[in-house]
Amino acid sequence: MHRDPDGSDRVGPDAGPPRHPRFVRLDETGRTPVRFTIDGRAATALEGDTLLVALLSNGAALRRSEFGDGVRAGFCLMGACQDCWVWTSDGGRLRACSTSVADGLSIATEQPEASWPVLA
Amino acid sequence: MAGSRVIVVGAGPAGVRAAEILAEAGLAPIVINEGSRDGGQIYRRQPDNFSRPPSKLYGTEAAKATALHAAFDGLRRRVDYRPDTLAWNVTPGVLHTVHHGQTQDIPFDALIVCSGATDRLMPVKGWNLSGTYSLGAAQIALKAQAVSIGRRVAFLGTGPLLYLVASQYQAAGAEVAGVFDTSPFALRVKALPKLLARPAVLAKGLALVAKLKRAGIPVETGVTPVEIAGTPDAGVSGLVLRDRAGRVREIACDAVALGYHLRPETQLADLARCDFAFDAESRQWLPTIDADGRSSVPGVYLAGDGARILGADGAEAAGALAALAALRDLGHDVADGRIDALRRDCARMDRFRRGLVEAFPWPAANAAALPDETVVCRCEAITAGELRRVARAMGATEANRAKAFSRVGMGRCQGRYCGQAGAEIIAAAIDTPVESVGRLRGQAPVKPFSLSATPLADQKGTEQGTPA
User: Fold this and answer.
1) Is the pTM of this model over 0.90?
2) Which of B109, B351, B383, B466 has the fewest Cβ atoms within 10 Å of its own Cβ atom?
3) Going from the N-terminus, what domains does chain B have, and what CATH number goes with each?
4) A86 to chain B, minimum CA–CA distance in Å?
5) Per the structure, how many domains does chain A have?
6) Contact of B383 with B418, CB cutoff 8 Å
């Protein structure tokens, strides 16, 4: 139901996830901006955002499932499901729902490890 | 007894009230909190630079939330508080923790586990699409971060939280596509005698539903989920369900908040070797506790939603009661009257709990009806068909064996979100009662942490539980 602002429908195996924000800010929007990068692109979040909220206020997904069933955007937001792992540019792994966004963070949404698709 | 080493795990309603009782008795308990702030999930605190007032965050429960926060703030000098700390294992008399990459083994005389609950999930085809969140997640997004999980959110499942979170979204200005409850309305009427154990809570629940309807939000009962529609790359685009009139309809939405009431987090109780028993009413395995929260293991106490889903008020009472039981067992004088009053509170709340289970039942039959291609294990994209195959063709009729063969329950969430539904799928596939399938064993570490974690160099000062 969504399209990118540039009008492309970004559907297909190579199109990648749409880049529109998944989350909608409803309040608390007057906070200090925080600047970080997502896969090398500059992004802005707000001080006090979790990394998960920072990422999903800039895009629609956090990572690609290593089992071949599409992109993932977190699930429980309380540190129980481990669905929201992302990576720092130096290869460290972060659980986005329980990490705070910080100025200068450099986040990779592509897993540095191999993937093991099980679905056709 | 004055030097008794007592650890409380959790800083939600149960943990805070337990710590308060222990501090009053002159003990300085260690309080382990996985989160960085106290309050648990229900009274979760927003970051310091947020400015919404408690009434906006907690609604009718604002006074209780602020009272609990104030109680814990007042305790900070009298307890050894350890936020951002994961309790990842229990061995006899020792709790194993990790904090910022440093592990620590903390001996205890009494351990009070107030580990809380997570959403109880029933898979539906497409629930692995991005944009599907647990109901609890939808609430955390709003409460702790002031965001909605999508532009147009559908609420699917059953239980009081379904209505509460939907109404919080509506009040905060989010677009709510509707509330779709799998439980038929008639069950609520049937459960009324038990629900009347807490008339004020019942009245608040009815008011919530009325408010949603006044706001023009569709509220439907007795629905059967068919599919969460969408694509692997774009995520959720709709919710397909069969309504109570039998019509299959698609509701447009880009997010689904999904949950079927709650399940207790019991891994630490399991690792401590506490006995469990199958609760036929809620169809889940629960640790065995006495009226005061004593588990089957001496020195291990269980309170709050991590033991029985009594809700926040019940958790406060159960946390206090478990702490009094621990004090008594450690040789402290505890007045009978205090224990009796809390027992009466807990008994009333337990009656209400049973009413909720009756009014908003776990839809076990839906598991049996899931199409084979439905993903059961979100972590590793393993389907219902695969789980049925290992149960039928490979003889894996017990939950842990089926896990070993299929990997359902072995992924990142360690079975939290697929374990109970998985047992129902196996039971239906081989036509056996779900309790005979058993339950997934808790495994240490209860959540992943880095192999590079190292023991804290200086463990002195931690063994007596002295305040930092």
Assistant:
1) yes
2) B466
3) 6-118+263-356 (3.50.50.60), 121-260 (3.50.50.60), 364-437 (1.10.10.1100)
4) 14
5) 1
6) no
Please indicate if any CB of chain A lies within 8 Å of the CB of B55.
Answer: no
ipTM confidence score:
0.94
Residue with tokens 């709510």: B176
Name the residue in chain A with its Cα closest to that of B142. Answer: A26
For residue A65, give the CATH number of its domain. Answer: 3.10.20.440
- CB of B419 closer than 8 Å to CB of B399: yes
Q: Name the residue among B118, B147, B265 with its Cβ closest to that of A23.
A: B147
Contacts of B391 (CB under 8 A, 6+ apart): B397, B402, B425, B426, B429, B430
Residue B170 and residue B208 in contact, taking contact as beta carbons nearer than 8 Å? no
CA B398 to chain centroid, in Å, comes to 24
Chain B partners within 8 Å of A10 (Cβ): 233-234
C-alpha to C-alpha distance for A110 and B135, rounded to whole angstroms:
27
Q: Which residues of A fall within a CB distance of 8 Å from B149?
A: 22-23
Minimum distance, in Å, between the CA of residue A104 and any CA atom of chain B? 20
Residue A115 lies in a domain: no
Q: What is the pLDDT of residues B362-381, one digit of tens each?
A: 999 999 999 999 999 999 99
- CB–CB contact A75 B137 (8 Å): yes
